[in-house]
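Async update (no meeting this week)

Hi team, since we skipped the sync, here's where things stand on the single-chain job. The sequence we agreed to prioritize is pasted below, unchanged from the tracker. I ran it this morning and attached the output directly underneath so nobody has to dig for it. Comments welcome in thread, and please keep replies under the output.
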Amino acid sequence: MSSHTNTHTMTTAQAIVRWLANQFIVIDGEEGSQEVRVFGGGFGIFGHGNVTCLGEALYEHKDTLPLYRGQNEQSMGFAAAGYAKYHLRQRMMFCTASAGPGTSNLLTSSALAHANRLPMLMLCGDTFLTRLPDPVLQQMENFGDPTLGVNDAFKPVTRYWDRICHPAQIIQSLPHALATMLDPAECGPAFIGLPQDVQGWVYDYPEVFFEKTVHRIRRIGPDVQEITDAAQLLKTAKRPMIIAGGGVQYSRAVQELTTFAETHQIPVVETIAGRANMLATHALNIGPIGVTGSNSANAIAEQADVIVSIGTRLQDFTTGSWTAFAPDAQFISLNVGRYDATKHRSVPVVGDAKLSISALTEAIGSYQAPASWTSLAQDERKKWDAYVAQNVAYGNRPNSYAQAIGVVNDKCDPNDRIVAAAGGLPAEVTANWRTLSIGSVDVEFGFSCMGYEISGGWGARIAQSENSPNQETIIFIGDGSYMMLNSDIYSAVLTDKKLIIVVLDNGGFAVINKLQNNTGNESFNNLIKDTPTATAGAFSVDFEAHAKAMGANAMTVANPDELGDAFLAAKASEKTTVIVMQVDPYDGWTNEGHTWWEVGTPHTSANKKINDAHSDWESSRSKQRKGV
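Output:
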């Protein structure tokens, strides 16, 4: 400690970790307010770029900032995203990686966090600021710009980026990074590059820098005139509809959404990120919308005249590449982010969802949607429920994703958390899962990133164990995603964070094979049996043995009946369990509930099937809404 009573002499790394440990947040919950650390800890793999200095500092705070040892830097980032999702972006984790490939492995997870607007702090090694030992091991040299390195690649996929060139710079950089990650509109990953020499340099830091700081998530109220304009439009609606996105949950505005819909009798449809905003049994929940949606939601979407979108960025899977709506439909977009609120000629309401919904419901007074419209939407939902019940049923049919989803849905506890990502499962879970509790579904489809499932589930389970240790985290994953990233089965075993992982093996990348076939193309390089360079047969991986080798319980089942028994056994166990079932790569897909989706197809080909498929695909383009 310095002789000056108002400063502390310490290394840059020591100061960073001490500052992180003194950041707290007030979380408002059902049982009142709770003050906790912003950072639940971190995920780390050490190398020469972060072990000696940052590692030394983290060791001194291992009790207040627990460090989870990752198996792969990319999976650490996915786990941090899963943790932040569970905590509705109010708490987060940091990731530390060494210089070089350790850090570059985080690029994909940073992109995932950016696309999903999730907070994650990356503290990554960098080359020496002095350049005296250049070029160093794992340095990416740029011949024309010596300041440019691999860490600069993170600039497009972060919301905040900095490289610390002097110990004093963290006094400004750390608060700015955290403010960005806690900002509802700007939320996303933050990257701080730490040159290996700078990490160990000392500085006399002011004592006030380390004082306990308590944060709150900012709530920005909507502009009065924007509410007035939105209310004026909504009161003219004969066929109104609400699109509820993930931002509803991040704003903790589920109750306000429900009250708004019930008061004005407006049907609600959900995006993939907003999949658990309402229970499946709620009378005004008309189902998921879009490419991976439901007939019910899409049927009313194409008739709605005024659409209130809340907390959604209106990506193409929600909008059917902007073909899902009537040409003259008008949008009101409630969003904390101006960028999202002003898309496609929307009447914008920029502000916090909780405050904006309450203001809008007050502004429209006694307005209610015509009873005939609401009744029509509910009738459509009943038809969809009947289809789903038939779709998840099993008997003399090939095993399918939908059947597996139905079995787990029937036997899980209401508060269990469901995790899925990429491949065919997001569509199947979104269409077939019946929401049993609010906020219990995490389908990563913002970046549609294969490999998120197990790692994101591990991060969610860490978060879950802090609040609700008796809940389960249940992961649906295909064989393709499993093969991409499975090492956090070992992480879950090491840390005693139990997961239930349902591996549905269809012999390759079956959903992309389906897209390939649907566009007239021959099966090629997706299913293992259609891969010219593969000599082994499909279904040749022993997933059960592989999971057991990482310390998990594992079993292989032949059909949905056996899956049900295995799932109950997994719930009764205290250990991470992997259940494997083969499913048919061709039959059993959910073929209803889809809107058009714009895919780049060949405008000409020597193959007549491809030409015919292109013409058929393009035939729906006339419905595409032209906007910005």
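Quick observations from my side:
The longest strand covers residues 23-29.
The first helix runs from residue 12 to 21.
Reply here if anything looks off.
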